[in-house]
Design a protein that fits this description.
This protein has about 250 residues and is mainly alpha-helical. It is built from eight helices and eight strands, in the order ααααβββαββββααβα. The longest helix is centred in the C-terminal third of the chain and has 40 residues.
Length: about 250
């Protein structure tokens, strides 16, 4: 038990400083290290259809956004329960918008973490998604079918793409996820965090001609991180003393 406490203490401090950069400008202009992402956001003359809102400052190219609509970027099969029915176009439209955000958004720096996957070296984690966007997404898919709740970790993969694990059952989204909150947070393994609209939150759907509302949400998060890091630096000595006292206490007990 003492060893467990010791390990927790050692990891508390580093976790507070877990964002990948302390440079505000870099955090506010972040493209994921992924298969199709640009290295830095910039304007695109044109982005395709649903991805067009990001054209003024984007991490994706026109070809990526066109392929997001007409081909299979990651060999991913949305119709994995086709023996029940194929995914409805309305549900697919919301997943396509989610994919546009993933490929194009320059606003995820404050929530980016390292991963080790074939298709990416980074992902975003618990980005606040506005409640109304989440409700609309789940409502569009509630009568569609899937066999698992975590679409990152639970598939069986082959050259043909993703398929349902042996013994799993295709059920409606309503049966698998039950609530819109559970759906939005679970489907992409905590990429999103269900957040009330009256709190700072990201939009999947917006009018790019009026600007990207997610720019301000990222700025607010960076300001929060700056305040947190400043507080940690100022109180760092207290953390060290606390850890040393705890270690000494464990040594005495042993």
């Amino acid at each position: 038990m003492n060893n467990i406490i010791y390990l927790h203490l050692l990891f508390i401090f580093p976790m507070i400083m877990s964002q990948l950069s302390n440079d505000p400008d870099q955090l506010l202009n972040w493209c994921l290290d992924g298969k199709h992402h640009k290295s830095r956001p910039g304007p695109e003359e044109e982005l395709y259809k649903q991805c067009s809102p990001w054209a003024k400052r984007s991490c994706c190219t026109h070809n990526t956004t066109r392929n997001a609509h007409h081909s299979n970027l990651y060999n991913f099969n949305y119709d994995h329960c086709s023996h029940k029915k194929n995914m409805s176009e309305d549900c697919r439209r919301h997943f396509r918008q989610d994919l546009c955000f993933y490929e194009c958004s320059p606003n995820v720096g404050p929530w980016t973490v390292k991963v080790s996957m074939k298709i990416r070296n980074e992902r975003f984690y618990q980005v606040p998604l506005c409640q109304s966007d989440c409700i609309a997404w789940f409502s569009a898919c509630v009568d569609d079918y899937t066999c698992i709740d975590n679409w990152v970790s639970k598939w069986v993969w082959s050259k043909q793409g993703n398929s349902c694990p042996h013994g799993s059952e295709c059920r409606t989204f309503r049966e698998v996820f039950e609530t819109e909150k559970n759906f939005c947070e679970k489907v992409w393994d905590d990429a999103w965090k269900y957040t009330p609209d009256d709190q700072p939150c990201m939009r999947l759907w917006f009018d790019g001609e009026k600007g990207n509302p997610n720019d301000n949400i990222a700025k607010l998060k960076v300001q929060e991180l700056i305040r947190l890091n400043r507080g940690v630096r100022e109180k760092g000595g207290i953390f060290v003393i606390f850890i040393m006292i705890a270690i000494n206490m464990m040594t005495i007990v042993q």
